[in-house]
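INTERNAL AUDIT FORM
Audit reference: QA-55
Scope: verify that the stored structure record matches its stored sequence.
Auditor: D.O.
Record contents follow.
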Amino acid sequence: MRFAHLSDSHLGSRQFGLLERETDFYDVFAKNIDKIIEKDVDFVIHSGDLFDNNRPSTEALLAFQKALLRLNEAKIPIYAIAGNHDSILRKGALPPQVLFKDIGLKLISDKNPAYNEGPVLICGVRYVPSSQSRALKNAYDQLSKLADKYLKSILVSHQGIDKWMHEDTHEIELSEMPKNFDYYAMGHVHNYVEEDFGKGKLVYPGSMEIWRTSESNENYRENGKGFVVVDLSYDKPQVERVKIDLPREFYKEIIDYNKFDERLAIIKEEIESLDNKPLLDLTVAGGDFDSAEVYEVINDAIGDSVLNLRPSFKPDKVLDEEKLIDTTKILDPRALLQKRVNEKYQNDDVNKLSVDLLDNLSIGRIDDAQFISDRFYSQHYYNEEEARELNNAQINESDSLDDYLDKNLDDKEDSQNESKQMRFDDL
C-alpha cells in the first residue's frame, strides 16, 4: 500500500503583499496534486496548514476544491488535519476544512480522530498549542493504544518537536512521542525531515513553497520542496522524496562594495535569463558609501527584472557597530517574553501560555487567545469539580483534546459510522 504525504501548503498566502506570490502558491499546490495522481497512490495525507489562515479567501477555497475534485475523479481519498494557521480555537468554531467533508475530504478531528484504510489505521490530532501539552500527550496515549490493534498504523500530527525547532518554541519533545506507530505524518516544520523513529519513519515533508525567505536555505537546496510517497509493504516504510519545481527563484546575495559593479552585472545577467521574475534579498557590505545612492544604482539596474527587491546596507561603520553586539543573545520577542515571565512565575506552563497568547494576539486572533486563557484558567486554577463542569459545557470541535477523548472513551451510546471513519468509543 502506497500513499502520498504532504503538508503546509498555506493556500491564500500573499507573500510581501504580492498577488503574484499568492498565485504561485496555488500553482505549486496544483502541481503537487498532478504529480500525486501520476504516482497512482492509494490515498493522500495532508498534515496541517492547508490554508494560510482560518478564514481563507474564495480563491484559496476554490484552489483546494479543484484539487479535491481531481483526486475524487482519480479515486484517491485524502485525509487531513487542521494546523496552527487554519485552526480556530474558540468555542463552537470549526476549521475551514469542514466545508469539504461532503465532497470527499476525510477530516481527522477531535470528534473523528481515527479512520481505517484497509488494514491501515490512520489517526491523528489537530494542532494543539504548547500551553495545552497535557491534552496533546493524553491524545497521543489514546491513539497509541488504538495503534496496537492494527497491522500498520499512521499518526498524523501538526506539532513542532524540540529536535527540529528553535529553543523553547516546540509543543512536544521527541522523547514524549508514542513509539509504536509505523509512520509519523508530521506537519508544522517547513524544512524537510526524514528520520527513523519508533517502528518506522518520522517525516516532515516541509512546506510546498518558500513561505519565509529563511526557508531558501541549505535544506531547500538539498531536498527541494514537494511531498513524499510512502510504501507500507515493507517492515519499515520506504520513503521517496518527490521534488516539485517552484515557479520562481529566491536569491540571497551579499555583495562586497569593493566589487559592487562587477557583481551587480553578474546578478543582472543571471536574473534576466530567468523565465519568471525572482525575489531578491540583496546586502551590500563593507566600504564607505551612501546607502541611498547605492540603492538608486541597484534599482535602475535590476528593479524592473525582479518581482520583489529587499535591499540592506552595511557600510564599514555599521559592521563595526555590529561587532560590539553580543551575537549570543537572541533579540527574539518570544524568547524575551519567556525570560521575563519565567523570572516572575518560574512555571513552564505559564511560560507556554504566554507564548501561545503572543502568537495569537500578534495576528489579531483575539477570540482564540481568550479561549486559550479560559481553558488554561479552568485547568490550573479552578477546583477539579468546577473545571470538569466548565470543560463539559465547552465540548466541541475546538475543545482541549484530553477532555473530549476522556468523555468519548467512556461513552458507549454512539453507533459506528457506516463509512471507514471510526470514533474511539467504537473500539
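Auditor finding: record pair retrieved intact. The radius of gyration is 24 Å.
Action required: none
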